[in-house]
Specification:
Length: 163
């Protein structure tokens, strides 16, 4: 299930729907499908989306440029506003730390795929490093030595030590 009708949510028991998502998100280089269990709950003017996301995506290391597996394991805690908040507040509304309200802006469904796409982007590390054993430093040194300004060092001959 990728798109959830708000009518279905309103008509469900306790105005709550449990969504199981398991699919590749094509915008990422997924090693495994992204799995999520999300509870949607209607709170009247707002719809709450809470759940957990797991999966493995390939990222490129910032230091050595090699690809590495990155494990996704984070919680989702989002609010949707049924009516446009932009008109009333004129800007994005942040309720508490890190919890933003997404404006449905008259839409009658919630796009679970888009929710997961946005959540994964927000949860990727700012600095992507393949691991503690990353040899990115060596890589960078090699890069520096290929700098033409450093070619002079290659022509320095070390005198053999006196035996
Ligand atoms: Zn690396």
């Amino acid at each position: 299930m990728r798109k959830i009708s708000i009518d279905d949510l309103e008509n469900s028991a306790d105005k709550t729907l449990k969504i199981s998502f398991e699919d590749f998100i094509k915008e990422f280089n997924c090693v495994t499908p992204v799995k999520a269990e999300i509870i949607l709950k209607s709170l009247g003017e707002f719809i709450e989306a809470k759940g957990h996301v797991s999966g493995v995506v390939k990222l490129e290391c910032d230091l050595c440029l090699k690809e590495f597996d990155y494990k996704l394991d984070f919680d989702i805690d989002e609010l949707y506003a049924k009516k446009s908040l932009m008109e009333e507040y004129g800007q994005e509304l942040e309720l508490k730390d890190g919890q933003f309200v997404t404006d449905l802006d008259g839409s009658d469904e919630i796009d679970i795929y888009d929710l997961l796409y946005q959540s994964v982007i927000l949860n990727l590390p700012n600095k992507k490093v393949c691991g503690i054993n990353c040899n990115g430093d060596n890589f960078l040194k090699e890069e520096n030595l290929s700098d033409p300004r450093l070619d002079v060092f290659k022509n320095i001959k070390l005198e053999p030590k006196n035996k």
